[in-house]
Design a protein that fits this description.
- The structure is a homotetramer of 326-residue chains.
- Chain A has 326 residues and is α+β, with helices and mostly antiparallel strands.
- Chain A has a domain of 143 residues: Urate Oxidase (Roll), CATH 3.10.270.
- Chain A is built from 6 helices and 12 strands.
- In chain A, the strands form 3 sheets. An 8-stranded antiparallel β-sheet of chain A has the order 1-2-3-6-7-8-9-12. A two-stranded antiparallel ribbon of chain A has the order 4-5.
- In chain A, strand 1 and strand 2 form a beta hairpin.
- In chain A, helix 4 runs antiparallel to helix 5.
- The longest helix of chain A has 17 residues.
- The two termini of chain A are 19 Å apart.
- Chains A and D meet through strand 1, helix 1, helix 2, helix 5 and strand 9 of A and strand 1, helix 1, helix 2, helix 5 and strand 9 of D.
- Strand 1 of chain C pairs antiparallel with strand 11 of chain D.
Amino acid sequence: MTEQQSSAASGIVLGANQYGKAEVRVVKVTRDTARHEIDDLNVTSQLRGDFSAAHLAGDNAHVVPTDTQKNTIFAFARDGIGSPEAFLLRLADHFTGSFDWVTGGRWEAEKFAWQRIVAHGEPHDHSFVRSGQEVRTALVVVEGAGGGVGGTGGTGGGGGDRTRHVLAGLKELTVLKTTESGFEGYPRDRYTTLPETRDRILATDVSARWLYRGAGVDAGFDYDAAYDSVRGLLLETFTEGYSAALQTTLFDMGRRVLERHDEIAEIRLSMPNKHHFVVDLSPFGLDNPNEVFYAADRPYGLIEAAVVREGVDSPAAAWEAVAGFC
Amino acid sequence: MTEQQSSAASGIVLGANQYGKAEVRVVKVTRDTARHEIDDLNVTSQLRGDFSAAHLAGDNAHVVPTDTQKNTIFAFARDGIGSPEAFLLRLADHFTGSFDWVTGGRWEAEKFAWQRIVAHGEPHDHSFVRSGQEVRTALVVVEGAGGGVGGTGGTGGGGGDRTRHVLAGLKELTVLKTTESGFEGYPRDRYTTLPETRDRILATDVSARWLYRGAGVDAGFDYDAAYDSVRGLLLETFTEGYSAALQTTLFDMGRRVLERHDEIAEIRLSMPNKHHFVVDLSPFGLDNPNEVFYAADRPYGLIEAAVVREGVDSPAAAWEAVAGFC
Amino acid sequence: MTEQQSSAASGIVLGANQYGKAEVRVVKVTRDTARHEIDDLNVTSQLRGDFSAAHLAGDNAHVVPTDTQKNTIFAFARDGIGSPEAFLLRLADHFTGSFDWVTGGRWEAEKFAWQRIVAHGEPHDHSFVRSGQEVRTALVVVEGAGGGVGGTGGTGGGGGDRTRHVLAGLKELTVLKTTESGFEGYPRDRYTTLPETRDRILATDVSARWLYRGAGVDAGFDYDAAYDSVRGLLLETFTEGYSAALQTTLFDMGRRVLERHDEIAEIRLSMPNKHHFVVDLSPFGLDNPNEVFYAADRPYGLIEAAVVREGVDSPAAAWEAVAGFC
Amino acid sequence: MTEQQSSAASGIVLGANQYGKAEVRVVKVTRDTARHEIDDLNVTSQLRGDFSAAHLAGDNAHVVPTDTQKNTIFAFARDGIGSPEAFLLRLADHFTGSFDWVTGGRWEAEKFAWQRIVAHGEPHDHSFVRSGQEVRTALVVVEGAGGGVGGTGGTGGGGGDRTRHVLAGLKELTVLKTTESGFEGYPRDRYTTLPETRDRILATDVSARWLYRGAGVDAGFDYDAAYDSVRGLLLETFTEGYSAALQTTLFDMGRRVLERHDEIAEIRLSMPNKHHFVVDLSPFGLDNPNEVFYAADRPYGLIEAAVVREGVDSPAAAWEAVAGFC
């Protein structure tokens, strides 16, 4: 965010601000051969810098139109999209490099996955079915001069003393264990009625964001391979062992990712505890040995934590840009 | 629906009516061995019959509580769920068989698919990830005596001269072809501005409902195998050949299903035309040979049709119970 | 719906079908004076008729593009929108009157209400805040020759022996009574655990559709005044007396509307029972005399009924076009 | 957020974390007289403090169950809810005061408004219709010792050297001006195609969060009156004058609130620019003098800014807890 800007007699001034175009749905088809490829993104571009005249005086001389930001996204897609992180870095460098007063910003993408339809025994050349599993997310934050906090990204391509942060992530990855989960040994007070259990369903929608460092902050890095690996590690760790609390499982998942990926500085996870209650069938003369459950909507538990490396700072500018994480 | 019931001096009377419990989220874990299985359904139960006293006089003597309907769903799950169609048939037979005044009803389910998480190279015994692809749907409609229309299901297990209809289906199966689709030769009037094309993206969310006949209206029928087959045929046919209109593709998909499945009387498809517009990049000095698209939300085309067998009637009672199909 | 059309050797033929453009978001500002008016609609146009060549042979000679349907909606809005029912009748007459093979169709609208912002003590001339209360709905269905059932609308403006049906409605009108509601005297079976009550919260989202007859099927009818009246009657009746069951309340609401509006042939209501459960506070040493409730999401009761006039037929073509009503 | 906690040989440690119960839907009816009152909230409680043992060792001795947090919300509602801010302060003081290791947390509420149904000319005693207009929001953040930043709230009731932050807000307040809005004088580059305009529709969904200071951080403060005033000022300012950019309108709205409310330290606004495009009707031989618009869904502009007081710090702990604001 930018500093406080130009003041009025009242002492009421403009604070942090950003603006841009949100949710540009761009689809890129690569058709160099008969075997087409598809990239399907939802891109948001938000600029930060000196926009005080627009706020205070209705002077738009600095306001790069949000429509122009949209056009730029489509135009840049003409050369190919590649990984969402690399695409966002290109956009970030363009905007911070093209307009003096744009000192930073926030570029975000959702990526929707498509699989080839298997027809007559073969994956089809140009027909796809959307995989509804998780949504991949990417975020690039550029801090301008004076942004302060020592960043993860060194000085970027955009010029000057800017810092670029690259966060990858996923959301809506819904997982469930039918056993090997419990919850015991918690403190009790006047309001505690929950019974202890050593066998329950554990279900959650995994949301994760991880911050790259070093080589991971470069458009040449293989973000797609890293994504596939992190996704696999999160899933695999979820399956392992007995879960004494969702907190433990969350931490184990994050730790595994950091252990295997030196280029990741930190990972944050937000995981609802999607309650599955054992239904009391005894009024109907039936037992229920953890077989029949009611899947509740609300309320739900919500467990959130960062798994970090000792001595490695968390850049505030990067994490503030991520909505809904602790 | 039931007939008009008990009248008032005003000539204003009760018409068709039904009631029940909607969206019971039941999860059944089968844990006979270490390799657990999971069934995850969203079940709705609605009864039809003689409920005029409740409407006209506040007399609930016939109103089987919706809470009881919910309890019954959980209790029946204790014995296992199996295919959603078979589960709904059990519920239908129970309610129409247990209460004289319940002459019919409507039982519906959504089924959410889970895949085993692959961990350390193997599908895990009790850890699952939800497949977000399509949602499977099932519907059982029971017409009571006097319901009139000759039904698909013969006399059911519930007793008397009732007719049971079984519809299977799916929704939210999102598919896309990057080429081999066009739209030409349409009529023009004062309001026509659309250019013709022989190469466009074709994208849709397939919603389908198919009605079983004969052996397909029996809890012993292998609904799961039929579902997998129909799903595969719909996907495969979507990939084939050049699409001159979404109507043609829709009809071909339905016809293929009927050709391969004698036990299916009729299939109805509802398919939005999810527009992907080629972005005009010429103002930026760029060409765009069908590579960069804007994926629009609204408005969208909407193509709906039934594919039927000559001489085989469509039972109104079955299809009226399906919301949102033509 | 149209009849079965042109067949193949296989005996697999096209059944009922319709197509069009869905969810055209049109906003019309009337600015003849400094006091602007705003109409905000979401319009869907679907044509029925002879479209077999498109389905069977990829011949689009009859396929009025959905894009043209969209353009027509915007063009017709240029002359003003007026009530949504009158606007849909204009569209219906246009399409059925302009193309020989378009014998009927389905035109639907949602109307979003805006209120003037009160600024400095006065309703503002051109600034509005959206009322999020209910959404008004309108539907016009035209049955072509051979559509059979004697309709509500006589012969329409579109020509020939067509029948026009006009349905008005509303949805998402959320109401709640904190007392004067109970549920007793219901049948019990093995699965019944619900306790009886004479004091509970009654909450529902009212969805209603009513069918006009006679003078009510004419663009000159004052649909706006009728809408306001019906909405008021539904709300007022909801408040009255003790509710012995949601069924009773629903019927009373519908009856009141028919009693006061001769031009309405029939009304159908779909009302979820949105459960508010009294929370058991006794483990915390507290009583709870119906003061603290948990508002549940799912499952919910679902009560649906038609309130009709003795001896007046329900035209199937009209009601089939309404998704999700019994 | 809490500091980094207990480490492993790997140097991978727990960072900031919080957990709790989300979206507890509590409805409180006050029925001391025949004229009932209703409070309808969606409450989330999240605790911060020393929970490292749960994450690192599966030891739940510090994990106050999320179920207990839910129970506490219901139990506290028994004494009445009052303003959402005061209710959250009670919860915050309870949790931070009851468990030594709970040093802070985040308590949030949505409040849904209900209006009395007017029946037979009078507002009804116990029947309500939900106002769908905006949703009121409230948030209390408690920073524990060592949380650092000098807070807005002084030391709270919970004990020790804690700082309590109170934020009020609203979301989904949809407003629209049919004229007196334009966008001109912006910079142009290769990707700019937007035409300038001095007359367009300006529409947005206002989201606002404001932070109280001084007397505003006390359960005795009249949060309801302040809310009504701020809401009114936001709406009124939106109507005023010519809008040269949404940025200008946003800043004016925020400034007005700070000018009138000394007890508010800062306000942040997030306002999408909901595009209404003038439809080109010239192909149909029609003019369109800003009368017929297409209301687009995506993409949309997104304008976000803080309006602050010179020399008054923004406490990071407060604003980090608000998802989706810049």
